[in-house]
Every structure is written in structure tokens, then in C-alpha cells.
Specification:
Strand order of the largest sheet: 11-10-9-8-7-12-15-16
Number of domains: 3
Largest sheet: 8 strands, parallel
Distance between the termini: 64 Å
Radius of gyration: 28 Å
Helix content: 40-55%
Structural class: alpha/beta
Shape: globular
Length: 657
């Protein structure tokens, strides 16, 4: 079959979305496991049969596919995103994508040869090249790939509609275990994406507040990119020290090998290492709460003098205060707001919810060939302990269970630890593709998929057989000229942000005050059973006004400064709106009810956006006063310059929710 021009064109289109899969398919010369039967009178009547079991993919291909298509379109014709397990002969997906409402069809196929057959039989070049047909081979599709998929902007709003459709009974009968695993991985990826959005505008604004409060100290301090450049590839192995119950038994060996490896301690482990005289090279911290600052209460000038404390810029100012005057490296997280500030010298680190994830990402960026985890239990110990001896805090009891270290049995964990575990597994998968070996030497707790599980002493003998002491360079703080430049860059960003956000807020208020009385009147009519088809045009007009407001927000400049708020204050409303969007609307009554529900939720949407913008504006002004003072002190701006007035209250001039 490989001489088939159609196959070559399909392969070229597939190469644009998955070059590894395309390369594997290119090396297949013919199908050996399956036979293909094509009805000469109907070229799309294609069946596939397993030579060994004599099992057919379809009973009657043309009829089966027609029935599948009709049933799917009856229930799902308005779904922009759909997920299927099994490619089959490819005909069904070609027909399904004729409906332009289906923006993307995700297909996971467990058998490479079936993909090979389908791409030889059906022209899917346009569908593959545009990625409207997104094809995964399940052996290659790991959890990390699904995380990347569901976090795409055009997909995540429809995540509550997720359902894995099985192509035919053939797949259920032959790939049941793989179906379960794929379904679990996609569902877990969606949960991970939801968690990354957070569920609290207050939590989001706390991060905004603390980032801007710490901004001046970040700019005047040590720069993350300078540190990475100075120490890139300088040490072969990193040991990440977390605070699980198993850590205590690993400390003597860690002390012995510390001179030869990069020791990366999470904040909670730092007091334990200090107590045992084990000096880390780096201490990471990412938490926003003040309680974390207590890990840095004790200062030991001799012990601390060579340690870099790598801390997220959104951490609590008390943490920053207690770390100084030690070597503090404040880094931004790769959020849209921080990426757009254009002060990249201070770097981006810390995707995920845990400083242990932050520590792993640091080890990866420094390009250690081996990353060793100890004390990373992510589970309660057999005695019920949540952390190592000497740790200051105790984890609240929860009763969730995951696969145990070693793969046998289960251990008790928490929701938060599961989130940390998910992020670890995503990062470890990415590291594996770049030939970085991750060893979980915790010898207890939860299994972290993708890691090599070995006792700590064996790993030490294996990867540290040649003990070469590390030699790490120190870096200097930025010079005054560079500090001035970055302070001014931050000032200009904040001024522009506030200007755009105020315009967006004013637009929201105007539309809200115009539409709310109309929406409330229509809702009252519905309550009185007086709404009918005469109100349809008015509902369409309101909906169009809402669309114009959304178009206003979707412009590049407005979205740049509003996205931070939209991502948290209205994200979960968008998920509900997606469910309304795909609901049936065949009759006039259905259309009216759907439109009414649509505009009602958007009333809350507009209110939430305006309130969120106002809160972000006031938080930013309040938190940026130190930056303003520093700029004036350096005579970089006029003494009467300001970011605007601080007004914590937000109330529409009239009307309310």
C-alpha cells in the first residue's frame, strides 16, 4: 500500500501535527495483522478484519457508519469538540467533519496498522492539516499530551462536555483496558486544567497583589536567567529534597553525597537540612501564604552564604523579608500577565501548585542528566505521619488512595498531593523525551509514573561512582542602569494595563446597565408564562449586543490586559455557557428558552468581568506604591506621577445582580 499517493499526502498532513507518529507510519510497508475488504460498487464500504481472530470491524460498514453518523448528529451536532476511541476505516470522521460546527474531533487509535490502513483508503489531508481531526496513537499519547491538548484555548471552554465515544464494539472487545486508561488520562488532564485556573478570584488577586509588592525587590535582586547561565550543565545530578515521612532515613546518605550533587531543597525541608548540617545549593518556595515565611525564621550566616533562595514573585512579602539579606532570586510564574511585562531577565519558573514541582522544573532547566527525588511521598506514612520528623506543619487527614511506590497496593493521599503528583508526571514525561532520567528514591509513599524506582543507596553507587566535587559560580546583582530600565519597563506596563482595564470596565458597565432591565423583564415574563415567539427578535438583539461586547474584549490589546481576570472570574461560567450552546434548539420554543438562558447567564458574566476588572485595577494600584516610590527616589518619573486613585468599593451606578 505504501506506494499509494493518497497515503503520502495524508502522511504529509499528519506530519504537521505529529511527526513522530508520521515517521512510524512511514516505515510500515504493508498491513500484516489485518485484511481489508472494499466493495467495488461502493468505495466507502470498507471493512477491516483481524486475520488471527477473524473478527470484523463492522457488520455492514456503509450501513453501520450511516447509523453512527445519524445517531451522533442527532445528539451532538452542535458540539464543537468531540472525543472518540478508534479510527476504524476513517470514513465516519470524514463525514462527521462535513459539519463545520465540529471544530475539532479528537481520535485515539490503539493500533498503528489500523491508522496505516485508514490513511491509505480515505483522503483526510485537509482534516489532518487543519487539526480539525486530531489523531493520537495511544502508545505514544501520554498524560502530558492530553494536558497540552485540553489547555488549548479553543478546547478548554468545552471541557464539561467531555465524553469518550467508542467507535465500534470491536474496540471495546479488544482494547478495554486501554480505553479505561485513555479515559482516565483525559479526565485527569481536564481536572488538572480546572485546578490550574483556580476557583477563587481572591486567590488570584492575592497573587497579583504580592507580585507587584515584591516587584521592586525582584528587579534590584539577583536575576534568575543569570543564575541559569552561570550554572547550566555544571553538575550531572540533582537531588530534590521534599519533606515526606521517608526523608528522615535518607538524610545520612544525602549528607555524604551533598558535595557532589546539586541539592535542591523545598522550603519546608530547609529547616530540617539546617538542623542536620546539610547545605543545599538552592531552596525553592512558591506559596502565597504568610505561614510559609516561618521556614526562614532562623538565619545562619555561615550556613546560608552560598545558598540561592529561588522564590516565586507572588509569595507573601513576609517570606521575602525573612529571607533577605540572603541570596534571594525572585522569579515570575509563566502567567499571561507576568510574561507580558517584558522583564524576562528575572525568568519564569513554577508551573503547578507545589514548590516540589518548582524544584523539579529548576533541576530540568539547569539540565541535570539525572534528577533524584527523596522524601517525595505524596502520601501518609504507615504510622499516619504526613511529613518528616522536624517538619513544622501537619497535613489534614483525607481519605483518597493512589497506587503505592513499587506498584503494589495503594496508599492514602490528599487532593492537593494528587495535583502535585499529576504535575510531576507531566514534567517527568517531558524530561524523559529529552533523555533526562528521573529516579524516585523515596522508597515509600505514592508511585510517580515515569520515574525509575530504586533505593537511594543503589542510585548513589550507580550514578556517583566517580565522585567529582561540584564547583558552582556565584552571580552579581544587576547594575544600576539595568535596574532603572526594568523599573521603567514595569511602570509603563502597569500604566498601560490600568488604562486598558478602565476602558474595558466602563464598556462592561455601559452594556450591563443597558441590558439588565430588558433581561430582567423577559425573565419576569417567563415566570408568568407570558413569553412567546414575539419576544424572539428582542432576545436576538440582546444576544447580538453581548456578542459585540465579547468581540470588544477579544481584540488583541484588550485581551492582553483582561485575560488574567477572564481566566478566573468568568472561566467556570464559560463552561456552563458551552453546555447551553450545544443544547437542542429545533422548535421556536426551544430557541426562545435557550436564548433566554443564554442572556441570563451573560448578565452574571458581564457583572463578574466588570467586578473582576475593578478589583484587579484597585489591587494593582495599591500594590505598586513601592515601585512608584522607588521610581521617584531615582528621579525616573515626576514626583506627582501616580497610577490613579485607590477606591476599593465596586458598585454599579444603578442595577444589581
Amino acid at each position: 500500500m505504501q506506494g499509494n499517493d493518497l497515503f503520502k499526502r495524508n502522511l504529509q498532513a499528519l506530519f504537521q501535527q505529529d511527526e513522530i507518529l508520521a515517521a512510524r507510519l512511514f516505515n510500515i510497508n504493508e498491513n500484516s495483522k489485518y485484511d481489508v475488504f472494499v466493495n467495488q460498487n461502493d468505495p466507502i464500504d470498507i471493512n477491516i478484519i483481524n486475520k488471527e481472530t477473524l473478527q470484523y470491524m463492522y457488520e455492514n460498514p456503509a450501513k453501520d457508519i450511516q447509523n453512527m453518523l445519524e445517531n451522533t448528529e442527532r445528539e451532538y451536532k452542535r458540539y464543537p469538540i468531540m472525543y472518540f476511541y478508534g479510527l476504524g476505516n476513517g470514513v465516519f470522521y470524514k463525514a462527521l467533519l462535513a459539519n463545520k460546527t465540529h471544530q475539532r474531533i479528537v481520535v485515539i487509535e490503539p493500533d498503528l496498522e489500523i491508522i496505516y490502513i485508514a490513511l491509505n483508503m480515505i483522503d483526510l489531508t485537509q482534516e489532518l492539516a487543519s487539526e480539525r481531526l486530531t489523531l493520537f496513537y495511544s502508545d505514544f499519547a501520554k498524560y502530558a499530551h492530553f494536558v497540552m491538548l485540553v489547555t488549548k484555548k479553543e478546547i478548554k471552554s468545552y471541557s464539561k462536555l467531555y465524553e469518550l465515544h467508542i467507535h465500534t464494539p470491536f474496540y471495546e472487545e479488544n482494547f478495554a483496558d486501554d480505553i479505561i486508561e485513555v479515559n482516565q488520562n483525559i479526565a485527569r488532564a481536564i481536572a488538572h486544567m480546572f485546578a490550574s485556573h483556580g476557583n477563587s478570584i481572591d486567590d488570584n488577586l492575592q497573587g497579583v497583589d504580592q507580585h507587584f509588592r515584591n516587584l521592586t525587590k525582584m528587579i534590584k535582586g539577583y536575576a534568575y536567567k543569570d543564575l541559569i547561565r552561570a550554572r547550566h550543565k555544571k553538575v550531572k545530578t540533582a537531588v530534590i529534597v521534599a519533606t515526606g515521612p521517608s526523608l528522615t532515613k535518607q538524610l545520612p546518605l544525602l549528607k555524604k553525597i551533598a558535595p557532589y550533587v546539586s541539592v535542591i531543597s523545598v522550603d519546608a525541608s530547609y529547616p530540617i537540612l539546617l538542623k542536620h548540617g546539610i547545605k543545599p545549593d538552592y531552596v525553592t518556595s512558591i506559596e502565597r501564604v504568610e505561614l510559609t515565611s516561618t521556614f526562614f525564621d532562623h538565619k545562619d550566616e555561615k550556613f546560608d552564604k552560598d545558598i540561592y533562595f529561588i522564590v516565586a514573585s507572588l509569595t507573601h512579602p513576609k517570606t521575602v523579608e525573612k529571607i533577605l539579606p540572603r541570596r534571594l532570586v525572585l522569579t515570575m510564574r509563566p502567567s499571561q500577565e507576568e510574561l507580558r511585562m517584558k522583564i524576562d531577565k528575572y525568568g519564569f519558573l513554577g508551573i503547578g501548585h507545589s514548590t516540589a514541582n518548582q524544584a523539579y522544573q529548576l533541576a530540568y532547566v539547569l539540565e541535570h542528566e539525572n534528577i533524584v527525588l527523596i522524601g517525595q511521598d505524596l502520601a501518609f506514612g504507615k504510622d499516619g505521619a504526613s511529613h518528616a520528623e522536624g517538619h513544622a506543619f501537619i497535613q489534614q487527614d483525607e481519605f483518597l488512595y493512589v497506587t503505592a511506590y513499587g506498584g503494589e497496593g495503594e496508599v492514602r493521599t490528599t487532593y492537593a498531593w494528587k495535583l502535585f503528583k499529576n504535575q510531576y508526571e507531566k514534567d517527568v514525561e517531558e524530561a524523559n523525551t529529552n533523555d533526562v532520567k528521573t529516579y524516585n528514591c523515596t522508597e515509600g509513599g505514592a508511585r510517580i509514573n515515569g520515574c525509575i524506582e530504586k533505593p537511594f543507596n543503589e542510585i548513589v553507587d550507580e550514578i556517583l561512582s566517580s565522585k567529582k566535587p561540584k564547583k558552582l559560580k556565584h552571580i552579581k546583582k544587576a547594575n544600576q542602569k539595568e535596574i532603572d530600565k526594568n523599573l521603567l519597563t514595569s511602570y509603563k506596563y502597569i500604566k498601560t494595563k490600568l488604562s486598558v482595564q478602565n476602558k474595558c470596565k466602563a464598556k462592561c458597565e455601559k452594556v450591563f446597565l443597558k441590558l439588565t432591565p430588558k433581561i430582567d423583564r423577559l425573565l419576569e415574563l417567563k415566570k408568568e408564562s407570558k413569553i412567546n415567539e414575539t419576544h424572539f427578535d428582542e432576545l436576538v438583539s440582546i444576544s447580538e449586543e453581548i456578542d459585540r461586547l465579547k468581540d470588544f474584549f477579544s481584540t488583541k490589546k484588550n485581551m492582553r490586559y483582561a485575560e488574567n481576570i477572564l481566566s478566573i472570574s468568568v472561566f467556570f461560567q464559560e463552561l456552563e455557557l458551552a453546555k447551553i450552546a450545544v443544547a437542542p434548539s429545533e422548535t421556536v420554543e426551544q430557541k426562545i428558552n435557550k436564548l433566554l438562558e443564554w442572556v441570563e447567564i451573560h448578565k452574571y458574566w458581564i457583572f463578574s468581568v466588570a467586578g473582576g476588572l475593578n478589583a484587579d485595577i484597585q489591587t494593582t494600584i495599591n500594590a505598586s506604591q513601592d515601585l512608584l516610590a522607588e521610581l521617584k527616589k531615582r528621579n525616573l518619573i515626576k514626583q506627582d506621577d501616580s497610577f490613579g486613585d485607590i477606591n476599593e468599593t465596586f458598585v454599579f451606578r444603578r442595577g444589581a445582580i
